[in-house]
Specification:
Mean pLDDT: 86
Number of helices: 16
Number of strands: 0
Number of domains: 2
Length: 420
């Protein structure tokens, strides 16, 4: 009987993973398929502007949710979980409005930043808002196993990005076409949230949101500072390269990272979300066997990494020149250097929810602090090197730090199993 239950559970895991991967794969395939078009409309410098914009939004989005979205899958009660969705929405609007007021103040004060930053800076609050709202929707749908709606939302996002970017580029608005595409994609991705709020808005109350905010206070209190450092470290190459190299190099790096992190951003995250839910279900059932879902998910991610990244390691430069045009050969060289570090991150990052379930948040915070400090130090020390040498150093750093990350996860599982 236990074997039958385990088989059903395994089949459900595979089915859920398949649904998310198929939808996520379709969503990711859209911008990838149209990248050869975009790379012939926009220059590396334009992609440099997009990389800086998205890096800024990614860091600010964490503040705009307080990381409360991570708690949505944890409560046994849907009512309590939806209070967390409401809380994320309130925080998102508050932070976005604050960012808008600050930007208006900067503009009226006559404070000038880089020209390419100034022309897109007013759109940052919208980017923050749409990203934060999607995070709340994303984790709620994962909790409810609403994978079809989640897939539709992601596909709508990708279509919005591609269609608007190409349209504005063809019309000659290349200075902000990519950023506007990103904004419209974010808007389309949260349309299902409107329906969700209309259906369940009566559940949300100020008292309920305050209660869950205090109950899950560790997420913004303990996790936000270190997770913010982790995200900042992940975006550090964009900010550092922009400081020490020209915008075309930033664009070439950004385009390389865009292609490399496509599976990392969608497929591995999709698998990781199901893994997180499985761990939560194990906890609810009273079982301590976290190693089985951990091993199964890691094996799945390893198989995907071999399939996706091997061609890029051997033929990155040739593929980029052929597919995207000769202007992007440098970006292909960057891919060949970065691909091993990216593959390791692809496998390890989605498994980090182990620390939440085992209540080893301090261990996670320790790694994130080390990762942030070592990344910033590495870029500051190596910034005078030729760009390819710098990227080799960065790739080695990623393999080393994420290998250590994986070791800490195994330690957390072992301790959890022993302590019960």
């Amino acid at each position: 009987m236990s074997f039958f239950r385990r088989s059903v559970s395994d089949n459900a895991h595979v089915k859920n993973a398949f649904l998310l991967i198929m939808g996520s794969g379709m969503a990711q395939a859209i911008p990838l398929l149209f990248s050869p078009v975009l790379s012939r409309i926009y220059s590396p410098a334009h992609f440099g502007d997009l990389a800086f914009f998205t890096a800024t939004v990614a860091i600010a989005t964490m503040i705009a949710t307080g990381l409360y979205e991570l708690a949505i899958v944890l409560p046994k009660s849907d009512r309590q979980a939806f209070q967390l969705v409401g809380l994320v929405i309130v925080i998102a609007f508050a932070v976005s409005l604050t960012a808008f007021i600050i930007i208006l103040f900067l503009k009226k004060s006559g404070i000038k930043l880089h020209d390419s930053i100034d022309q897109n800076i007013i759109l940052i609050p919208l980017g923050i808002l749409f990203n934060a709202l999607f995070q709340g929707l994303n984790y709620w749908l994962n909790r409810k196993k609403g994978y079809l709606v989640l897939n539709i939302s992601r596909i709508a996002q990708s279509l919005g990005i591609v269609v608007v970017s190409i349209l504005l580029g063809w019309l000659g608005y290349r200075e902000y076409g990519l950023v506007m595409g990103y904004i419209f994609g974010g808007f389309f991705s949260i349309i299902p949230l409107v329906h969700l709020m209309l259906k369940h808005h009566s559940i949300i109350s100020l008292t309920g949101m305050k209660r869950v905010a205090l109950l899950h206070l560790n997420f913004p209190k303990l996790m936000l500072p270190t997770s913010g450092m982790n995200t900042a470290a992940g975006q550090a190459p964009v900010f550092m390269l922009r400081s020490f190299y020209d915008n075309a190099i930033v664009g070439s790096y950004g385009f390389a990272a865009r292609i490399l992190t496509a599976p990392l951003a969608i497929i591995s995250v999709a698998i990781g979300q199901i893994f997180y839910r499985n761990l939560a279900e194990v906890g609810h059932s009273g079982s301590n066997d976290l190693y089985t879902p951990f091993k199964r998910t890691a094996s799945m991610l390893l198989a995907f990494s071999i399939l996706v990244f091997t061609p890029l390691y051997f033929w990155g430069e040739s593929l980029f020149g052929w597919i995207f045009g000769k202007e992007w050969l440098e970006s292909g060289r960057f891919v060949e250097i970065l691909v091993i570090g990216t593959a390791v991150r692809f496998i390890v990052s989605p498994l980090s929810t182990v620390f939440y379930v085992t209540n080893r948040i301090k261990m996670l915070a320790l790694w994130q602090t080390i990762y942030f400090a070592s990344t910033i130090t590495m870029f500051l020390v190596a910034s005078g090197l030729p760009i390819t040498t710098l990227l080799y150093v960065y790739a080695f750093h990623e393999v080393l730090l994420y290998g250590f990350y994986f070791t800490l996860m195994l330690f957390a599982i072992k301790k959890h199993t022993i302590n019960g």
